[in-house]
Every structure is written in C-alpha cells, then in structure tokens.
Specification:
CATH class: Alpha Beta
Number of strands: 6
CATH superfamily: Ribosomal protein S10
Number of domains: 1
Strand content: 35-45%
Largest sheet: 6 strands, antiparallel
Shape: globular
Oligomer: single chain
Strand order of the largest sheet: 2-3-1-4-5-6
Structural class: alpha+beta
Length: 122
C-alpha cells in the first residue's frame, strides 16, 4: 500500500498585464505561502516551478479526502490576488476518484469524477 495515496498537480496563471518584477515578487510570495499551506496539510514531496506566465506545483498527500482537498482549496484561494487564477487536479492513486479545483481569489469551484465504478466497455 502506498504511503501517499493522493497526487496533486496545480498551475497558477498570472495575468498578462503583470510586469516582470511584479510577477517575480508575486511568484516568491505565492511559493512561500502555498508551501506553508501544503506543509500544514501534511503534503510531502512539494515542488514548484515557474514557466514564465505561470507557477506550477506538485505534491503528494496521505489520503484522497474531498473535504480536506476543499479546505486546501479554501486556503490557497485566500492567498491569490486579482492577477492570479488557477486549477488543481487531485487524483486518488488507486484511480477511484479525481477532483479538479478551479481557483480564483477568495473562491473556488470543484468538478469531480468518481472512477470507482468505471470500467472499460469496449
């Protein structure tokens, strides 16, 4: 049994109106704040990388828990500014569930897919 049963992959997109220095400062702040949020949630193997106009992240959580993921989305959305929006894909490693969270400043929306009873019907 895997120690970490939930993979989280996210991307935060910056507004094209942001200047280079503003984007760089925003990215530093977001990495610090989101890293602290993820650590507090028990995330491991936390990784961030910038791609010019976006910040990507990846980590693992012990369990795929929709309530915990919603709380995580609350906390991340709370640190976003008006120039940043994103999405976060959370996958149960047994492929029984998948949640996609659309993140905006102070709010989020979840789309989920229950994969537990999904079978190939060729």
């Amino acid at each position: 049994m895997a120690k970490y049963n939930c993979e989280v992959i996210g991307v935060l997109q910056y507004s094209p109106d942001m200047g280079y220095h503003e984007l760089y400062e925003m990215e530093e702040r977001l990495i610090d704040e989101i890293h602290a949020i993820l650590e507090h949630a028990g995330a491991e193997h936390i990784d961030f990388w910038g791609t010019g106009d976006a910040l990507q992240l990846q980590c693992e959580l012990q369990e795929y828990d929709e309530h915990a993921l919603a709380s995580l989305s609350d906390e991340i959305a709370a640190v976003l500014s008006d120039d940043v929006a994103g999405k976060m894909c959370c996958v149960d490693k047994s492929l029984s569930g998948l949640s996609l969270f659309f993140l905006a400043p102070g709010r989020w929306r979840r789309e989920g897919l229950d994969l537990a009873d999904t079978h190939y019907q060729g």
